[in-house]
Amino acid sequence: MMDDDANAESVPTGFTVDPRETALLAPYAMAGSDSAGRLHPERQHAYRNPFQRDRDRIIHSSAFRRLAHKTQVFIGDMGDYHRTRLTHTLEVASIARTVGRALRLNEDLIEPLALAHDIGHPPFGHAGEDVLNACLRDEGGFNHNQQALRIVELLETRYPNFPGLNLSREILAGQRTRAQKRSMTDTPLSPTSPQDALLEVQVVDAADSIAYDAHDADDAVELGLLSLHDLEESELWRQAGHSARKRYAALDPQQFRRATVHEVIDRLVSDLIQAAQRRLAAYGFGSPAEVLACSDVAIRPSAGVCEQKRELEQLLFERVYRHPDVLSQRRLAGDALRAMFDHWQARPATLPEPFDRIVAIEGARRAVGDYLACMTDRYALEAHACLEG
Ligand code: MG
Question: Is the pLDDT of residue 5 over 70?
């Protein structure tokens, strides 16, 4: 469904009380009818609430479509089994909605937050991010979470009346929180300052972490970077594997791996829901405002599972993200991106629309950063080959 009514006349933005929200949502959930609206006021939609419209705007954006051809961790010709940014994003949305529904949060808000959470990633995964961050050091650096805000507030050009997608303020605030903290669950929080994230935002952050722990392990084994035996060093994987063997009588190695991945996700999601339910019961939040004022993150795993996650992530860091094949691909990709940055920085007049407009406002370097960041891996490799040719 296209969202083609964005140029409607300016009228009040509040969404009328939705009986579905009233019946289903907990008092601490962020209801669409209480949304603070959009920067550019728009008429209410006849049958979609504000967060449903946000979801549709994100899905119809070109940045979202490009996630299909952006790398998660593994760069280069590594077959077609492993996750892309798009499939990772859909896994995060699926896990986050499951958790959100169990906690009676607003799934309509969770979904667009999840779908937009990685929209700012440049080509070549974290290798691309590191290179752009270095190239833009004097301009404030580059961060994929910050870039997601630039995309939805400035760079997408779907509507004639305003730049960006004019998303609800709750979506923008959630993404801004992500840009300020690398991960809510991993970052120690000040015990006195409010953590400033709605529960729906916290759910997406926790779901992101669950999705990449499980699928990076799965992808790494498929790609031969890690063996099932290696993964047994992780207690989380070992316990999940034990449950998988108990559940199924006979499994070949591939079936065992997949059954274990399912079990890992199930354990992490179940623990997250139970730990969150305990904290929500203890805090007794009566409104989203009380959530925002609290200095604790309520949606995070139990202490025991947190430790198991850390152990698995450390294993993945050492054996997978630092694997010689992954590092050499990262170097090649980084060199290509740096060469392209230098090329276009010297020729800003050749940048396509809308990046040519950024040159006049924020300078050539930021404009080139935006242009390169929007490229898919494939497009960037082809563009680099053209420069070399
Ligand atoms: Mg992610």
Answer: no
What number of other Cβ atoms are within 10 A of residue 79's Cβ? 9
Strands (E), the chain: none
Q: How far is the CA of 117 from the centre of ligand 1 (A)?
A: 6
Dist. CA 89 → ligand 1 center (Å) = 6
Tokens of 282: 């203890």
Separation of 309 CA from ligand 1 center, angstroms? 16
**ω into 352 cis (within 30 of 0):** no
Q: What is the DSSP letter of 8?
A: P
User: How far from 201 is each of 17, 117, 216, CA to CA, in Å?
Assistant: 22, 10, 23
How many secondary structure helices (H) and strands (E) does the chain include?
18, 0
Cα–ligand 1 centroid distance for 388 (angstroms): 32
Query: How many angstroms is it from 274 CA to the middle of ligand 1?
Result: 23
Q: Compute, in angstroms, the gap from residue 122 CA to the centroid of ligand 1.
A: 13
| Angle, CA 294 vertex, CA 291 and CA 299 arms, to 5° | 65
* Residue with the two structure tokens 């694997």: 323
Distance 208 CA to ligand 1 centre (A): 5
- What is the CA(62)–ligand 1 centre distance, in A? 18
Tens-digit pLDDT profile for residues 136-157? 999 999 999 999 999 999 999 8
Tell me the per-residue pLDDT of 70-109, one tens digit each, with 9 for 90 and over. 986 666 666 666 788 999 999 999 999 999 999 999 999 9
The helix-helix angle for 125-135 and 324-345 (nearest 10°) equals 40
